[in-house]
Amino acid sequence: MTRTPNIRRGILATITATILLSFFPPNTVATVEKQALFRFKNRLKDPHNLLRSWKPSDSPCTYHGVTCHPLSGEVTGISLENANLSGSISPAISSLTKLSTLSLPFNLISGGIPPEILKCKNLRVLNLTTNRLSGEIPDFSHLTNLQVLDVSVNFLAGEFQSWIGNLTRLVSLGLGNNNYQQGLLPKSLSNLKKLTWLYLARSNLTGTIPDSIFELNSLETFDIARNLISGEFPVSITRLVNLTKIELYDNRLSGEIPPEIKNLTRLRELDVSLNQLHGALPRELGTLKELRVFHCHQNNFTGNFPPGFGEMRFLSSLSIYRNNFSGNFPANTGRFSPLDTVDISENRFTGPFPRFLCENNKLKFLLALENDFSGEIPGPYAGCKSLLRLRINQNRFTGHVPEGFWSLPLAKMIDLSDNRLTGEISPQIGLSTELSQLILQNNRFSGKIPAEVGKLRNIERIYLSNNSFSGEIPTELGDLKQLSSLHLENNSLTGFIPLGLINCVRLVDLNLATNSLTGEIPNGLSQIGSLNSLDLSGNMLTGEIPVNLVKLKLSFIDLSENQLSGRIPPDLLAVGGTVAFSRNEKLCVDNRDVKASEKHVLSLCNDDQHVHKNRSLDGTLLFLALAIALVVLVTGLFSLRYRVVKIREENKDIKKADGKWKIASFHQMELDAEEICRLEEGHVIGAGSAGKVYRVDLKKGGGTVAVKWLRRGGEEESNETEVSVSEMEILGKIRHRNVLKLYACLVGRGSSYLVFEFMENGNLYQALRRSIKGGLPELDWLKRYTIAVGAAKGIAYLHHDCCPPIIHRDIKSSNILLDGDYESKIADFGVAKVADKGYEWSCVAGTHGYMAPGEFSEVST
């Protein structure tokens, strides 16, 4: 009896479907949809040929990524995720009237969202996240069946949409990471009662959070990070008891985190970093037993850290650096939880260091620098084989380093500097084969530097200065092909400077000062073409200064306080000044090479003993000069191509800094890739066609730098990438006080970063329009004159002192930067050109209104 109604209903449904399909013959429907699909396909570029199954002879239901209705055979879904597709979305999509799912995330699709998509009334899922879509978002308010709308991480513009409140069936909404105009969070969001996932990060939102949003009781993820939201931390958020993830970082929130946070018992991730929050963290925060991620770095929190964190079972990431926490850090933290990342740096924690952070052998990143921890480094960390980065510098640690600490197999960075540690470096250091940075300066280490350091084939920076190391410098250091900085100053090292150092082909910074080194300066140091800074002062070196050192592009040299003899090469004197060669009794300088006011610092050479030699060599020198000039003229034609090819080949082989970044350094400076690339939208100081420029304050007193970010990948950005490469190639080899200094270039994770010196006073264009107290212009005539002279010197250096000359091609006021003393620096070499005799430019480059003299002339410069 019960089966009869079901059978009848099934027969009735079959008859109904048959009748309906008779009005729309299957062949006709399939033909229309097939044509639409092929128009859709033709708009796309498919480098991996994933759409090869889309054949005219086959049914669309067999196409890769296409789904159909089981009865009618009509197309209901297109899902092509992470397929590396580019091109644009065809308006023909509107012909797929039964389409309920259009999912094209993680591709390279550009252009606008076609308004014809609004004809797809049955659309339930529209997922276009992480593409390159631009233009304004169409008014989707009539697509009332939408349950998932995600157009985040694109380049969409216009005003933030208020019609969004009409889509009352939405469960997931992602509009973040686009280029909207500034606007408020629309109150109409409170209409979306079914919403569980809300992603509005980096949407240029201002004002406060409307209290009505906290009526979305189904909400599980609430992400409004990286906006301009102000006001106090919203207490009302604690009413949303289903929340599992709260992302409020990088806004302008103030106030304190309320004790009511304990109501969010399902919370797994909480990030309130980069705000202006203050006060003590409530103890109740430590009762959130489901918490996996807690980040509150760069706020103004004070007091003790909640002890409940030591009892958590699931905590994996804890980042609370740059606050004012004090007292003992909870001793049990990590004992029961699988910690992966811990950053408690730049606080005022005291007492012993917690023992259990690596208890579960998951810890990869441990950063506790700039605190006041004391006592010995706990022994359990010697077995923390998972560690990648360890920075516990600038504390008050004492005693020996645990033996196994030296042989961490995956560690890329060990920084124990600025403590009171004693003992020796174990030969086991040779087992840390992934190590790229070994930083131990300013401690009380002693003994010999083990030869096993030469096994660290990935090492880039070794800082052992200001300790009590003795013995000879290991010759094995010459095996370190990736080494860029070697600091051994202020120790008790003896013996010769190892000749093998000339094999360190990437060495930028060599400091062996204040030791007891003897012998001569190796002539082979001139073969290290990357060397930029050389400090051998305060030793017992003898012999003459190798003349070939002038071949290096040094920005710093100090050979003072040795026992050197002979003439000082004029080019080196110009770099270091007389002080860099002082207290070498047998060194002398030509009268014409030193200022009158500095002649008392160095002895003058006796020219008489050279007169006869000079006369007898006059004819030979003249002949050689003419011969050399001829050779230079011939080879000069090939120098540009050789230099560019060489630089690019070197860059291809640049060492990976931590498996994720590649770094090329051009100046003496300690850089941390993760720190450089942790950019904050609130610190944007400029933007141009090639990317944004951020101010970055380096930890550990590293000062401030400017970082230009360039997102890479795809055809549309190839030109911008070439601009970045051009800028790196040119600036990396320039040394002049009136040309902006490029410290390093970082490449990885789909982005490029150029690290420059920071200019406190911005650019000339801005400064000319600023006023000081009383309405007077910021730049008086003396400052303007100084700026103009400095800029002229920089341009003259580029045009006349660089070989071959460099033509900037875009000198304008916004490309002249000003430091704290209003010293001008030429910047933005994205369109610069290295002059090549015989090459004529076919077009004028740079900004309209300015033409480089070398381009105006008919003769190549």
From TrEMBL:
Q: Which InterPro entries match?
A: Kinase-like_dom_sf (IPR011009), Leu-rich_rpt (IPR001611), Leu-rich_rpt_typical-subtyp (IPR003591), LRR_dom_sf (IPR032675), LRR_N_plant-typ (IPR013210), LRR_R13L4/SHOC2-like (IPR055414), Plant_LRR-RLKs (IPR050647), Prot_kinase_dom (IPR000719)
Transmembrane feature ranges:
621-640
Compartments, as annotated in UniProt: Membrane
Give the reaction(s) catalysed. L-threonyl-[protein] + ATP = O-phospho-L-threonyl-[protein] + ADP + H(+); L-seryl-[protein] + ATP = O-phospho-L-seryl-[protein] + ADP + H(+)
**Which Pfam families does its entry note?**
LRR_1, LRR_14, LRR_8, LRRNT_2, Pkinase
Per UniProt, which keywords does this protein have? ATP-binding, Glycoprotein, Kinase, Leucine-rich repeat, Membrane, Nucleotide-binding, Repeat, Serine/threonine-protein kinase, Signal, Transferase, Transmembrane, Transmembrane helix
- Membrane association type: Single-pass membrane protein
Question: What residues does the Protein kinase domain cover?
Answer: 679-861
Q: Does the keyword Membrane apply?
A: yes
Main localisation: membrane
Query: GO molecular function: any one?
Result: ATP binding
Cited PROSITE patterns: LRR, PROTEIN_KINASE_DOM, PROTEIN_KINASE_ST
Q: One GO cellular component from the entry? A: membrane
Q: Which domain of life is it from?
A: Eukaryota
- The EC number(s) given in the record are 2.7.11.1
Q: Does the keyword Transcription regulation apply?
A: no
- Sequence similarity: Belongs to the protein kinase superfamily. Ser/Thr protein kinase family.
| The protein's name | non-specific serine/threonine protein kinase
What organism is listed for this UniProt entry?
Answer: Eruca vesicaria subsp. sativa (Garden rocket)
